[in-house]
Every structure is written in structure tokens, then in C-alpha cells.
Design a protein that fits this description.
About 50% of the residues lie in helices and about 15% in strands. The chain is built from 7 helices and 8 strands, in the order E-E-E-E-E-E-H-E-E-H-H-H-H-H-H. The strands form 3 sheets. It has a 4-stranded mixed β-sheet with strand order 1-7-8-6. Strands 2-3 form a two-stranded antiparallel sheet. It has a two-stranded antiparallel sheet with strand order 4-5. Helix 1 packs antiparallel against helix 2 and helix 2 packs antiparallel against helix 3.
Length: about 220
């Protein structure tokens, strides 16, 4: 809160307005240390905007000729805490329209980003497939493409999406090919299903895996 902010209090109990004498459970403004209802304080035309949306609050206060900060006493923390603001209805509507426009803009930006990432994925997967066939000339073209599509999926966490994979590092690409052979050309998955540990299963299929790698490298 700024020193020049108008303050309105959300009381913890009812108060009696010093001007009109009505007892109110709602918001009040202290003037000369005496409580006044919003009607007597000439603030009853304002609407309450709860805290939580910083952008909406900032814009509503900017657009509002008159505004006030609403606070409430916290017994636990022994201090007044901000609850929201009072602003003009028209100002709130303007702020809401501006925020909606921003959200539309962000939605369009997200969609463009998704489209750009999809294009980047296609380009990367294409280059990855070419590099797989460069390193493994006897690997069928359809298989190289399938490995590249699988390993190069964005946000998949697969080896092809690592920094090394993005750089088309030979070791990273080999790991992607090895993973494909392990699952597609050996009984590795079936061994895991029988309860064999991952390392023991890898040891058992190692010779089969190496045979395929040797054949594809030739």
C-alpha cells in the first residue's frame, strides 16, 4: 500500500456510523478516528475487487478516478492485511476487457508456438532419420524413420530430445537405436514381464542386440 492510498476497513465486528448512526457489518472508512459507512464516506458507488489478480487490479485502479484499498485486521498476525480494492464499475469492466484481450493474445501466441514446435519437430526428426541411416547404413529406411519419430518427440524425455540428441551426437543417436532394437528385435520386454531384473534382462539379450547393430552398421 502507498502512503496516499485511501483505506477502507473490513471490520471484524459491527460498527455504528458516526454520521448516520446506522449499525453496519460491512466496510467502513475512518475519518478523524471515527467510523463512517461507505455511503457517508461517499464511496458506496464503488465495487469491491478481491485480491488475487494483479493485472486486473492494476488496470482497474488505473482506469478508476476514485479507488480505495480494503484491509482487514488479522488477529493471528496482529496487523492489517490487504483484501482487495474498491473501484468504479466502469473501470472494472474496462480492466476485464483488457485482460480478456491479453488472454486472447496469449492464446494466439501459444498456438503459434505449438505450430512452430511441430515444424521444428518434423525438421529434427527428418535430420535424425538421415543421421541414423548414415551411422547404420543397413538399417531399413522405414525403421530409421520410426526410431526418429519415437526418439524425437518433443517433451518425451527420450534420448533424441537430450542436448546431445538435438546436436545429432553419434553416441546419443546410437543409444536411441539400441533402445529400439532392445524393444523391437529381442525378447527384452517379455523377460521383464517374467520378473527378471532390468540389468539381467539386458545381459541376456546383449548378444542379440549386438548382432543387429553389427548387421545395420555393415
Amino acid at each position: 500500500m502507498k502512503p496516499d492510498d485511501l483505506l477502507v476497513i473490513s471490520p471484524v465486528k459491527e460498527f455504528t456510523c458516526a454520521d448516520c448512526g446506522t449499525t453496519e457489518p460491512d466496510l467502513m472508512r475512518l475519518e478523524n478516528d471515527a467510523p463512517h459507512c461507505l455511503g457517508c464516506a461517499d464511496l458506496d458507488h464503488l465495487v469491491f475487487l478481491p485480491s488475487g489478480n494483479t493485472a486486473l487490479t492494476r488496470r482497474a485502479r488505473t482506469a478508476s478516478t476514485l479507488s480505495a484499498v480494503v484491509v482487514r485486521w488479522s488477529r493471528a498476525r496482529k496487523r492489517y492485511e490487504r483484501q482487495g480494492v474498491l473501484v468504479e464499475q466502469a473501470a472494472l469492466e474496462i480492466a476485464e476487457e483488457q485482460c480478456l484481450a491479453d488472454e486472447d493474445l496469449r492464446a494466439r501466441q501459444r498456438e503459434r508456438s505449438r505450430e512452430r514446435r511441430a515444424i521444428e519437430d518434423i525438421d529434427f526428426q527428418h535430420r535424425l532419420a538421415i543421421e541414423i541411416q548414415h551411422l547404420f547404413p543397413a538399417c531399413p529406411a522405414s525403421r530409421a524413420t520410426a526410431i526418429a519419430l519415437h526418439a524425437g518427440t518433443r517433451s518425451s524425455g527420450r534420448v533424441g530430445r537430450s542436448a546431445a540428441g538435438r546436436a545429432l551426437d553419434e553416441h546419443a543417436i546410437t543409444l536411441a537405436v539400441v533402445a529400439s532394437i532392445r524393444h523391437e528385435d529381442t525378447p527384452y520386454d517379455r523377460l521383464l514381464m517374467t520378473g527378471i531384473s532390468r540389468q539381467d534382462a539386458r545381459d541376456q539379450i546383449r548378444s542379440q542386440l549386438d548382432d543387429v547393430l553389427t548387421r545395420w552398421r555393415s
